[in-house]
Amino acid sequence: MNIAIDSAYLFHLKPKIKSSFPFQKLETEYKHTFFGYYDKSPFNKDDTKLLAIATNYDKKKNKSREAVVGYFDLNTSKFKEIGKTSTWSWQLGARLQWLPGECEELICYNSEVQGGLGAVIQNISTKEIIRKINIPIFDIDEKGNYALGLNFSRLYRMRQGYGYGNFSDPTKNEMAPENDGISLINLKNGKHKLLISTKFISEFRSKKSMLNATHYLNHISFSPCGNRFYFVHIWNKMGKRFSRGFTCGIDALDLNLIDKKENLSHYNWKTSEEILIHTSSKPNGVKFNLYKDIENTKHQIGRSILNKSGHPSFSPDKTLIISDTYPSLYRLQNLILCTSQGVLINNSTKLYSPTKFSDSEKCDLHPRWSSSGTKICVDSSYLGSRKVLIFNIEKLIKK
């Protein structure tokens, strides 16, 4: 056996999770229970409910990808089913999220709508579908008025762990489609329009590596004010993947290429003018840079701490950063907690991830803050199936 598998075997003789924080495990009667990406919090405003997806899907055994959508009552740890969807992925989930606004009972998630990919807005108490939208959503602004969407079928074809394979990609024969890209969706009436096409982005300040490459878009995120958004342009050529990051106004104006020299990916807005982005390049390696939007000035955060690929996010009060790492040679994933200036607070939490959770089936921790900023929620595979864990960090941050 190779060294990674051998090390994983040896870890079976020890605890599969080590943490200085008390934690709560949330599970359902289904094999897998998880949330998805790190850029949205599954907690409601008073930390009494936590959204999740549950499924028995196994690609070797099941054709149906049906999953249950629901939430945990955190006072009882009981899971309440709300609806079902077959429109989800291991990385991005169903883009399940609380819908901002006056009513705190509304959620939004991707589902099949009218024989295609779409999204629904639903009341968790009555289970009533408030509105159906015939395009899948990626992100929602903080007022709950607009969403941004993209072609998840194309995303699936390019990166299976992220997109949805329910329907074939109508752009499969196009390297950079002109009538496909990022759409702006009015959540009040369901109307949508194409903001930025993949073809336009592929030709914007083009590089040699972009010629005769296949292009797609991913990782869309509204700024806190909702007037601008971040997204990643990715292109594949001869087995290599390249990426760059942009910000843009929701009127499709003021398109801003953030950094010409770095490959940009994971992100988190600190303010409406500042965004933390995971970058990588040769010979600079991995960095977490805080960029000033439009000006594109930057400074590195946590030079000796945040130096491995991960998924960073600021605490609700913007004083702390939580991030994770991919599995090491010994299949261990770390949680890293530091100040917003990059000073280490704690990195003692380690979770084991079995080797079967790799490639499109991988289970990243994707740490997410509670609304109070005292808890961290992750998806973990340390028991051999996906479970949701909540770490209580209240005592540490109040020292």
Could you describe the 3D structure shown?
This protein is mostly beta strands. Helix content is 7%, strand content 41%. The protein has 4 helices and 30 strands. The strands form 7 sheets. Strands 1, 23, 24, 25, 26 and 27 form a 6-stranded antiparallel β-sheet that branches. Strand 15 and strand 16 form a beta hairpin. The longest helix is centred in the first third of the chain and has 9 residues. It is globular, with a radius of gyration of 20 Å. The chain starts with a helix and ends with a helix. The N terminus is likely disordered.
Q: Structural class of the helices, strands and pairings?
A: mainly beta
The fraction of residues in strands falls at 35-45%
Helix percentage range: under 10%
Radius of gyration using CA atoms only? 20 Å
Instruction: Kindly report how far apart the N and C termini lie.
Output: 45 Å
Count of DSSP helices? 4
Average of pLDDT:
94
Tell me the number of strands. 30
Which stretches are low in confidence, meaning pLDDT under 50 for 5 or more residues running? 1-6
| Overall 3D shape | globular
Q: Describe the main β-sheet briefly.
A: 6 strands, antiparallel
